[in-house]
Amino acid sequence: MTGRLGRIRRVSGPLVEATGLDGVTMADLVELGPARLPAEAVAIRDEVVTLQAYEYTGGLRPGDVAISRGEPLSAGLGPGLLGGVFDGLLRSLVGAPEYLFPGRREEPAATTLWHFVPEAKEGDEAWPGVRIGTVDGVGLEHRVLVPPGVAGRLDWVADEGPHTLAEPVARVGEAAIALQTRWPIRRPRPVLERLNGGVPLFTGQRVLDLLYPVAQGSAAAVPGGFGTGKTMLLQQIAKWSDADAIVYVGCGERGNELADTLQELRELDDPRRGGRLADRTVIIANTSNMPMMAREASIYSGLTVAEYLRDMGYHTVVIADSTSRWAEARREFASRTRQLPAEEGYPADLPSSLAAFYERAGRFRTLSGAEASVTVIGAVSPAGGDMTEPVTAHTQRFVRCLWTLDRDLAYARHYPSVSWRGSYSRDAAVIAGWYTGRGDPEWVRRRARVLALLAEADRLAELAELVGVSALPSQERMVLLVGQLIRRAVLQQSATSANDATCAMPKQAALVDAVLTVHDRSVQLVSDGVSATAMEKVDFTPLLRAREDSGSSDVDAVIRRREELLGVLDGLT
Ligand SMILES: Nc1ncnc2c1ncn2[C@@H]1O[C@H](COP(=O)(O)OP(=O)(O)OP(=O)(O)O)[C@@H](O)[C@H]1O
Ligand SMILES: [Mg+2]
Predict the structure, then answer these.
(1) Whole-angstrom Cα distance, residue 259 to residue 265?
(2) If you count DSSP H runs as helices and E runs as strands, how many of each does the chain have, helices first?
(3) Given ligand 1 and candidates 239, 287, 321, 415, which is best to mutate, with the most ligand atoms within 8 Å of its CB?
(4) Which CATH fold would you assign to the domain 442-570?
């Protein structure tokens, strides 16, 4: 025990005052009472240290011990993260989904044995990022690296065999390297450099991949009013994106949703690696029924886990649902500590803490020399859909993609309800370059045409409301028609359909091309004298159903539907 011993003087909700903790510094971890509840030093004044407890403080009383650990709030990182469920401080919640009952918490099995396979030898040079060996486990290969801050010569490496998390498997001078390391969650883990350039993160969601793509290592936010489909969209990305690993932070949301997600991930096969999708996912649960204060930490724990996996060379995605609940935890805390509130009661550092969250995203050269990334995606729940409220407004300053969910679309059961008016992707240009560089300039053309047609169709729809559709010229009626086709055949996507939940890029392209080809032919036909009314009466159902009726990568089925439909259209002349 490195800590110093102090005494609790006062307990007020999650705020605890202690004395006798000499040498404690801000953000240090202090353990409180016989149950050793974790708390963080948030104010130091004379001899009195104010601590924010991360668990219910019921049972604590003045006179109880307060032990300083002499380190900032940190998380244990090691094998066993993938496939696991953890609380906001990254302590294992064994037995999930029973984790819904707070208090059933256990330390990550300290006695579990992990099979270590050495790669480095005694005498090898060691510096941060050098591979020492691997650990057998589920999902991705777990790589044991020399941690930041350790350099020299490897004096000893353990033989192949079973080890607990705390046992050293290598030694560099004085430093023992165990399977589990600790890292202060609020501090970004070091990298060699930040990299530019954009490789798209495939999400399997057409509206995102085709119109508002996100690059690996970028940051995106999903603002949406109550029930507009934020959680569903984030869960779809967790299931189907082509990241190596997903860290899903359920932050103040309903526990049963997270339990369902976990159950589904356990049942679904990973299409790319085999195994279960759960094997590449880390779930951090701080649901609405768990102590609010750990919610504040859960987001940083999630980022830290993602960076730890990134350092092994993996592309990771951190999903936070919802950053608004996280901001509310900060607001609650600010009011308890009587900080001067800024906008709507949020603490004045709300913008900088949001920036610090999204800025940990990036594409990097890791200490091992690998190219790897952390993509950050956060849901935002503006009360009443008010996009000017502080969390939503500030978030927009720090993300590169905004996927705004539209209440009217959700109400009309157009899912995912990503608005094509209120969304943007600042990654689109660099991703266009990526597609073009890979010999696919069509992606850019498709995107430009679809966006232009959607905008034109919206404009005409407003006009048609005033003057009636039949008053519009035939060519414009064809634009209205293609607007509907784009929405229903391409942009709508059912999360619950086995065929449609995800969509491979070639099928996405085939669906767009089918709609655009049908549109071009319709325009041609009306200019050849076919009436717009006749065109509007055509049964487009086969095209509309192509996304759900054929497999998620079945391009041929889409092409067949397209050809059939073109045949029908040609029959109109
Ligand atoms: N892609 C989709 N496919 C099918 N149904 C969907 C889709 N997205 C949303 N829904 C429907 O909308 C409902 C609400 O979605 P969801 O729970 O994701 O909304 P939310 O924005 O997270 O809500 P809250 O504000 O309560 O967190 C779902 O239960 C589902 O019925
Ligand atoms: Mg939700």
Answers:
(1) 10
(2) 16, 26
(3) 415
(4) 1.10.1140
Q: Could you tell me which residues come within 8 angstroms of residue 567 by beta carbon, excluding any fewer than 6 positions away?
A: none
Q: If you search the block for the tokens 């469920």, which residue do you land on?
A: 85
Write the residue with the smallest CA distance to atom 26 of ligand 1. 227
Helix or strand run (H / E) with residue 398: helix 390-398
Residues 6+ positions from 343 with CB-CB distance below 8 Å: 350, 390
The token pair at 319 is 């999903």
Reported as a single tens digit per residue, the pLDDT across 378-403 is 999 998 888 899 999 999 999 999 99
Nearest CA, atom 16, ligand 1: 229
Domain 5-72 CATH class label:
mainly beta
Q: pLDDT-derived band of residue 442, with 50, 70 and 90 as boundaries? A: very high
Residue entry with tokens 């750990």: 294
CB 324 near ligand 1, within 6 Å: no
User: Is domain 193-432 in CATH 3.40.50.720, yes or no?
Assistant: no
102 — pLDDT class (breaks 50, 70, 90): very low
Report the distance separating Cα 62 and Cα 64, nearest Å: 6
Cα maximum dimension of the chain: 92
CA of 221 to the centre of ligand 1 (A): 16
Whether the model pTM is above 0.85: yes
CB 248 within 8 A of CB 284: yes
CA of 193 to the centre of ligand 1 (A): 38
The span from the CA of 570 to the CA of 94, in Å, is 63
Q: Given CATH 2.40.110.10, say whether it is the number of domain 109-179.
A: no
Q: How far is the CA of 332 from the centre of ligand 1 (A)?
A: 27
Q: Name which of 355, 378, 372, 222 is nearest 298 in CA terms.
A: 378
Q: For the chain, which residues make up each domain, given as ranges?
A: 5-72, 109-179, 193-432, 442-570
